[in-house]
Design goal:
The structure holds two protein chains of two kinds. By secondary structure, chain A is α/β, with parallel strands linked by helices. Chain A has eight helices and ten strands. Chain A has helices at about 20-35, 60-75, 75-85, 95-110, 120-140, 160-170, 210-225, 235-240; strands at about 10, 15, 35, 40-45, 55, 145, 150-155, 180, 185-190, 195-200. Chain A is elongated and about 65 Å long. By secondary structure, chain B is of the alpha/beta class. Chain B folds into two domains: about 5-225, no CATH class; about 310-445, no CATH class. In chain B, about 45% of the residues lie in helices and about 10% in strands. Chain B has 19 helices and ten strands. Classes of the chains: A alpha/beta, B alpha/beta.
Chain lengths: ~260, ~450
């Protein structure tokens, strides 16, 4: 039933939830049913003292399912995809922006996701663009080292990109074991015996690379240095394509930091 | 010689090759489940070298022990440089090990002519066959065809590689015969035609037959050296346009000539590489491939060289002011593409957004359209008459900031009478040149 208007009144209230997507859907549920627009929605862990009262929204799978089903039925698969993507972003107010987008979308119907000139839509699309951009860069910039029983690599992304990197590397290396450690979000993507898994961890210790591994690393570094043309050196152009924040995890770039 | 030394020598000899792309092929994973490798349609850059160019493939020569003596080339047989040759096993192993570590997207294999073109190609084919059938490697492979290779071998290369390319090397036959006397025009265009034929056949067969073979699914490309010979930009663009239509090329690459050897027929060794000119050629090339421009619209007999201050699209707009303003709410996709500052992405976004609501300036901004230059050429809901500003302001906005980022001496390389003042006064400040250019442009508007 596209076109139904959701009347939401600004409420001096901050929603707290458990940080999961299901938890966020429950916040959407509450907002729609109570007809209130919270000042902010925060994961419990990110809560900081402020003057506004808190409402803790407990996660109820049935409610979360209902919201998801309603999005699929009344809006579109693209809206679900967009919501899932934006939820992986690092933006501090992503939940609030997503809620605003969903309120707008339910008021308009399936075409809402294509109204690119609307504030509510442009905001979430911009976040998604940032996320997908980072995913694309990291597909190239991740460096693995061979630790014998598996390949291992470290990343320090702004967004939670692991779920979107998983399929790419699993398809590419179906017969290898590998793990990617996301230092920012303290999570590990492990691919072992054909199974993908993302787990939260405190710290990952990599063993010392073998001599063979170091040999390939130095060959790669050497190749990198050789392939640049001296007469054309252009540090700004390089930095534009490959921002400095990625360099710390790249074998050939670490020495330029 | 150990493999580290070989890699250094053979990467050093390959670095002037312009093409380093891994696009045009989609492969979800290794067919048959053995081995490794996939390819994504847009390609993936794995690093960027100090010159700002993308590193996506392991770009090396099979060998730099070249029998030919092309005057412009570092690897010419009469040049005194260290020589090396990979064995097929070494190179295959190196590719696999680099690929596993996610250093590269695949292999870019070219070679100097060892003994003769056929022998060289056989060596290259051995590397590719090892990779594909022994290591079950299904990452991206770009192979160069050595001019003069037998057609059976070209065919084999095409079956193993994702993209193959024959270099046209220089923009005219006259230049080719003076600078690369051993490479004949026919030896370049015959394989090019065969490859075109092979790709066309494979594309129809794949639709019809289950086990049809794949032939260079990433298409064919070529490259040429710019600035070593006297051709005008118009000549070069005409040649490229001809290559696109006649041989169905995916890409033509332009490589600014960097003097490496002294020869009376070549620019002096201290000549700066014409980077801005190369940049303009790429911009024009883009216009022909993605924006449906004809070579004749970009340059002409009367104006055979690029305007150093304006990018080719802006230059076209300034010379065709009658085409503007374009109404973003009603104009066709093609018309939107003609607006300076609006590319395929923005044009697509505008077409999607305007289906649902009328578009004004603020909407355009939110869609992500860059308005700095576009705003002078469009009409929107809230600006039904377009923007009218004084000509000097507009001229300033239109001038390409990229013209100056490469240094003032790049402008003087264009060698046009109206730029004479650049060479007369020694190294004028960039700001002055900019003002001068803006005034000059404003008078034309």
């Amino acid at each position: 039933m596209p076109g139904f208007k959701i009347v939401t009144n600004p409420a001096d209230l901050v929603y707290l939830y458990d940080g999961s997507l299901a938890g966020f859907f429950c916040c959407v549920h509450r907002s729609f049913y109570e007809r209130e627009l919270p000042i902010d929605i925060l994961p419990e862990a990110a809560d900081q003292p402020s003057i506004y009262p808190r409402a803790y929204i407990s996660t109820d799978q049935a409610k979360a399912e209902a919201v998801r089903a309603s999005i699929v039925k009344n809006l579109s698969d693209r809206v679900i995809e967009l919501t899932e993507h934006v939820f992986l972003c690092h933006h501090p107010h992503k939940e609030q922006k997503l809620l605003r987008f969903l309120i707008f979308a339910f008021g308009i119907g399936p075409k809402a996701a294509y109204m690119l000139g609307e504030d509510a839509v442009a905001d979430v699309l911009e976040m998604e663009k940032h996320l997908l951009g980072e995913v694309h860069l990291l597909r190239g910039f991740i460096r693995f080292a061979d630790y014998g029983e598996m390949l291992g690599g470290v990343i320090t992304p702004k967004n939670f990109v692991l779920p979107l990197l998983a399929a790419h590397f699993a398809n590419r290396f179906p017969n290898e074991n590998f793990m990617i450690y996301d230092k920012t979000h303290k999570a590990v993507l492990a691919f072992q015996g054909g199974k993908l898994e993302i787990t939260m961890v405190e710290e990952v210790e990599f063993s010392q690379p073998s001599e063979d591994e170091l040999r390939f690393q130095s060959m790669w570094k050497n190749f990198y240095k050789t392939i640049g043309i001296e007469e054309r050196v252009n540090p700004r152009c390089r930095m534009g394509h490959m921002p400095k924040r990625y360099w710390q995890n790249m074998t050939e770039m670490r020495e330029y930091l | 010689m150990d493999i580290m030394q070989k890699l250094t020598i053979l990467a050093d000899s390959a670095k002037y090759d312009a093409a380093c792309t891994s696009s045009g092929v989609t492969r979800g994973g290794p067919p048959g489940g053995k081995g490794m490798g996939s390819a994504v349609p847009d390609g993936i850059c794995h690093s960027f070298s100090a010159d700002g160019r993308c590193i996506t493939l392991l770009k090396v020569l099979m060998s730099n022990a070249c029998a030919y003596d092309c005057k412009y080339c570092v690897n010419r047989s009469s040049n005194d440089v260290p020589r090396a040759t990979f064995t097929p096993d070494e190179l295959a192993e190196l590719t696999i090990q680099f690929y596993r570590r996610n250093y590269i997207e695949g292999l870019f294999l070219s070679s100097g002519v060892v003994r003769n073109p056929d022998y060289t190609s056989e060596q290259m084919i051995r590397v590719l066959a090892l990779l594909r059938y022994e290591h079950h490697f299904w990452g991206y492979i770009h192979a160069k065809v050595i001019p003069g290779t037998a057609s059976g071998l070209v065919r084999r290369l095409g079956q193993l590689a994702d993209r193959i390319s024959v270099n046209v090397e220089l923009p005219s036959e006259a230049s080719l015969s003076t600078l690369a006397p051993q490479k004949k025009r026919k030896a370049i265009f015959t394989p090019m035609a065969e490859i075109k034929q092979g790709i066309a056949v494979s594309q129809t067969d794949i639709v019809r037959y289950k086990h049809a073979e794949n032939f260079a699914p990433g298409g064919q490309a070529t490259q040429m050296i710019i600035g070593a010979t006297p051709e005008s930009d118009y000549n070069i663009l005409r040649l490229a346009s001809g290559l696109y239509t006649k041989y169905d090329l995916r890409r033509v690459f332009y490589s600014a000539y960097i003097p490496t050897v002294t020869d009376t027929m070549l620019p002096a060794v201290d000549t700066k590489p014409p980077l801005l000119r190369e940049h303009r050629l790429y911009q024009a090339d883009w216009l022909m491939r993605q924006y449906q421009f004809d070579a004749e619209e970009i340059l002409s007999e009367a104006q055979p060289n690029f305007n150093p201050y304006l990018d080719p699209k802006c230059n076209w707009a300034v010379n065709n002011l009658h085409f503007f303003p374009v109404d973003v709410n009603t104009a066709s996709f093609q018309a939107l593409l003609r607006v300076p500052g609006i590319g395929p992405k923005s044009a697509k976004a505008i077409v999607i957004a305007r289906r649902h609501s009328h578009i004004g300036m603020s909407q355009l901004k939110r869609i992500g359209v860059v308005l700095k230059r576009a705003k002078y050429f469009i009409l929107t809901d809230d600006l039904p008459c377009g923007i009218r500003l004084n000509k000097q302001t507009m001229a300033k906005a239109l001038i390409d900031p990229g013209s100056f980022s490469l240094g003032v001496e790049q402008l003087s390389l264009f060698d046009r009478p109206e730029l004479k003042f650049l060479t007369d006064t020694k190294a004028p400040a960039i700001q002055e040149v900019r003002e001068e250019a803006a005034t000059c442009l404003a008078s034309k508007l």
